[in-house]
């Protein structure tokens, strides 16, 4: 679907196109066929790697996913950003997402500790009002016994 044919539908950007990113992208594209998702794009640091990029771009293209050249390109279109990178890349992904547009959701699926997720949240959210906002929300939810 064209990026300008989105209306109020979701435009989802995945940061990380490894195993989890590919599974999520496939599921999201099923929703696109039902009309709930207008666009799915991805950015992965390996898209800049001469050895890994061609296969990754080919996989994304075959699946109908836009492989973006940078996080900035991804953020320019996405109104929901899902970070599915390894725990060691949590802060780097959050740093790259600092230019996120107001009103864009940032969902952090990384398995990093709350000690990493809180500063990641602040990087995405700027001056975070609470540690539970943005990336920190998933850290808080995962440690709240009432939500278990």
Summarize the structure.
The chain is an alpha/beta fold and 148 residues long.
Write the layout of secondary structure elements.
Elements: E1 10-15, H1 19-34, E2 37-43, H2 53-63, E3 66-67, H3 71-77, E4 80-83, H4 90-96, E5 105-108, H5 114-125, H6 135-142
Structural class: alpha/beta
Please mark out the parts with pLDDT under 50 across 5 or more consecutive residues, or reply none. 1-6, 127-148
Helical content (DSSP H or I, runs of 4+): 40-55%
DSSP, total strands: 5
Distance between the termini: 38 Å
Work out the helix count.
6
- Describe the oligomeric state of these chains in a short phrase: single chain
Q: Compute the average pLDDT.
A: 79
CATH architecture descriptor = 3-Layer(aba) Sandwich
Spatial strand arrangement across the major sheet: 3-2-1-4-5
- What's the SSE pattern? EHEHEHEHEHH
Q: How would you describe the shape?
A: globular
Total domain count: 1
What is the name of the CATH class?
Alpha Beta
Radius of gyration: 15 Å
Please describe the structure with a list of short key phrases separated by commas or semicolons.
148 residues, 5-stranded parallel β-sheet, 16% strand, globular, disordered N terminus, alpha/beta, single chain, Rossmann fold
